[in-house]
Design brief:
The complex is a heterodimer of chains A (240) and B (315). Chain A has six helices and nine strands; from the N terminus they run E-E-H-E-H-H-H-E-H-E-E-E-E-E-H. Chain A starts with a strand and ends in a 5-residue tail after the last helix. Chain A has one domain: 3-Layer(aba) Sandwich (Peroxisomal Thiolase, Chain A, domain 1), CATH 3.40.47.10. Chain A is α+β, with helices and mostly antiparallel strands. In chain A, strands 1, 2, 3, 4, 5, 6, 7, 8 and 9 form a nine-stranded mixed sheet that branches. Chain B is α/β, with parallel strands linked by helices and 315 residues long. Chain B has a single domain (5-311), classed as Thiolase/Chalcone synthase (Peroxisomal Thiolase, Chain A, domain 1), CATH 3.40.47. Chain B contains ten helices and eleven strands. Chain B has a five-stranded mixed sheet with strand order 5-11-10-6-7, sandwiched between helices. A four-stranded mixed sheet of chain B has the order 2-1-3-4, with helices on both faces. Chain B has a two-stranded antiparallel ribbon with strand order 8-9. In chain B, helix 4 (76-89) crosses helix 10 and helix 7 packs across helix 8. Chain B is globular. The chains are: A alpha+beta (240), B alpha/beta (315). At the A-B interface, strand 3, helix 2, helix 4, strand 4 and helix 5 of A face helix 2, helix 3, strand 2, helix 4 and helix 5 of B. Strand 4 of chain A pairs antiparallel with strand 2 (67-71) of chain B.
């Protein structure tokens, strides 16, 4: 099974941006850039970004870059585009923040707004609203934050005709200080856009393929995590 | 507490092949440990990580295969079943254990209370006087197998997962699109994948949370897809509450039982039909021979699922 990669976007400790801007890419340890401020969403009616938790902001920002990179951020009618993400910690930091509002004053100030961010798929839900994405969508909790589970599942969805365009990626903020994680993921969000066929003017980064065992390849070279996939996208020109 | 719940489930599970792929479905894993930690009590915060709970299940069955947790609010289990079936369909696995669970905890209870989604009385799905949901605790496990392997191992089949689809409303983070514009295409896609028409579906196990918006959205969807058929629709949430990430798994198991026995469960708590529920929902069980049933789930984040379960055909 094979498909095209047409977009890549990221927000990591090493920088943020999108592939066609030649922005610096590095998934490394460290601190994420500031996630505040206005985001230039194509859907200018959306004004809630500043009130979101960090996890949701992080995922949304990277998805925005990836869709911009693929030329798919602007829309008029909702689209059957899917979104699969993997995460190690999910919204655990927000869970802790929310539950502290419960324990304070015996729950009298339990924060309903914060509770709506206590779902691992919050940024997927908001991305669906902002970008009109109605396709298959879910979050996978994996052990290492490699993102491979998300890409493999996305490719499965394309293989079975569940959708023709799908984003796959990872999203993890820094772990809360009181949580010990054995395989600590580097903080950041990275998304790629996968398309079964291309029916518009765009040159893809290359071909993503998967063998029958679920091993992934970019232009026939094996990839072991999403970071490697994006590096290969940025380093090579495609001949398709 | 999550391990206690899982241990109670494991007692009920027969032999599981050690090479099975494991897919768990849960939204909050061991959330009670987070509560204890915040309250300054002894707790292992690793229980909040799905990898920790995943390893517990994996070691319990000596599983050697890979796996993952699906986390998509109240649609988690249905998506887990769909992904498991995908692996078998694509030939990457021939045995997949899907394990669904979620706890009732103060964390969850307080959140739904803060959102004013909880009913002060037992919930009444599809009833005109419904006032919201009750949350419930539960777990379910389903072993998916390719027909070839099941036959080779001499296992009896409880039924088939014939088709599935996942969609997003792209509308609101907590409220569904009340016109069913998200769930409707999911149901249609699931029917298409199953290779059956609307007429082949004999009953619907609805998400039926007892909230005003969810139930109205589902009824509109069913009318759009199935027209004016008096198709039996039921919700188990009046009986067991909303088991959140485990809901779709528990409901799929109930559907398999219904397909086998031909008995459609009653909707506990239902008394007076809401607009659109007339003739569809009942608080009495019904005997209806079924070949296919539809099960739907929807959740925060705008996610919807539709799965089609078919009667056992192997024997």
């Amino acid at each position: 099974m094979s498909a095209f990669i047409t977009g890549a976007g990221w927000v990591t400790a090493g920088g943020e941006g999108k592939g066609r801007n030649a922005d610096p890419f590095d998934l490394s340890e460290g601190f994420l850039p500031a996630l505040s401020g206005k985001i230039p969403f194509a859907n200018t009616n959306f004004r809630r970004f500043g009130r979101m938790d960090r996890y949701c902001k992080l995922g949304l920002k990277a998805i925005n870059y990836a869709l911009q990179d693929a030329g798919l951020d602007a829309w008029e009618e909702k689209r059957d585009i899917g979104l699969v993400a993997s995460t190690v910690l999910g919204c655990l930091a927000t869970d802790l923040d929310y539950y502290r509002t419960v324990t304070d004053r015996d729950g009298l100030i339990a924060d309903p707004n914060l509770f709506t961010y206590c779902i691992a798929n919050s940024f997927i839900g908001y991305a669906a609203i902002i970008f009109g994405l109605t396709g298959t969508n879910f979050v996978i909790n994996e052990k290492t934050g490699s993102g491979i589970s998300a890409i493999v599942s996305a490719m499965d969805c394309v293989s079975l005709g569940e959708c023709d365009i799908i984003l796959a990626g990872v999203c993890d903020v820094e772990p809360p200080p009181d949580v010990t994680v054995s395989a600590r993921p580097a903080p950041g969000a990275i998304f790629i856009v996968i398309e079964k066929t291309i029916e518009r003017q765009i040159v893809p980064y290359g071909i993503l393929s998967m063998d029958k065992n679920g091993t992934l390849f970019f232009n026939e070279s094996e990839i072991k995590d999403i970071s490697m996939c994006v590096r290969k996208c940025l380093s090579g020109k495609t001949d398709v | 507490m999550v391990y206690d719940l899982l241990d109670r489930l494991f007692v009920l599970i027969g032999p599981v092949p050690e090479d099975s792929y494991l897919i768990t479905a849960s939204t909050k894993a061991g959330i009670d440990s987070l509560e204890r930690s915040v309250r300054g009590l002894s707790a292992d915060m690793r229980d909040c990580l799905f990898s920790h709970v995943f390893d517990y299940i994996s070691s319990r069955f000596s599983l050697t295969g890979k796996g993952m947790n699906i986390n998509a609010t109240c649609a988690s289990s249905a998506i887990a079943l769909a992904r498991g079936a995908s692996l078998i369909e694509l030939g990457r696995a021939d045995s997949v254990l899907v394990c669904c669970f979620d706890l009732v905890a103060e964390y969850v209870f307080s959140g739904f209370c803060a959102l004013q989604a909880m009913s002060p009385a037992p919930c009444m799905p599809f009833d005109r006087n419904r006032k919201g949901m009750n949350i419930g605790e539960g777990a379910a496990a389903v072993l998916l197998m390719s027909p070839e392997r099941a036959k080779r191992e001499g296992r009896s089949s409880l039924g088939t997962l014939a088709g599935w689809a996942v969609s997003n409303d792209a509308f609101n983070i907590t409220a569904p699109d009340i016109d069913g514009r998200g769930l409707t295409p999911a149901v249609r896609k699931a029917l298409q994948m199953s290779g059956i028409t609307e007429d082949a579906v004999s009953a619907i196990c609805a998400h039926g949370t007892g909230t005003v918006y969810n139930d109205a959205m589902e009824l509109k969807t069913f009318r759009k897809v199935f027209g004016n058929r008096t198709l039996p629709v039921f919700s188990v949430k009046g009986a067991i509450g909303h088991t959140m990430g485990a809901a779709g798994g528990i409901e799929a198991v109930l559907c398999l039982k219904s397909l086998k026995t031909g008995i459609i469960p009653p909707t506990a708590g239902f008394k007076e039909p809401d607009t659109g529920a007339e003739g569809l929902v009942s608080n009495e069980p019904a005997i209806i021979p079924c070949n296919y049933m539809l099960s739907t789930n929807s959740g925060f984040g705008g996610v919807n699922t539709a799965i089609i379960l078919g009667k056992e055909t192997m024997s």
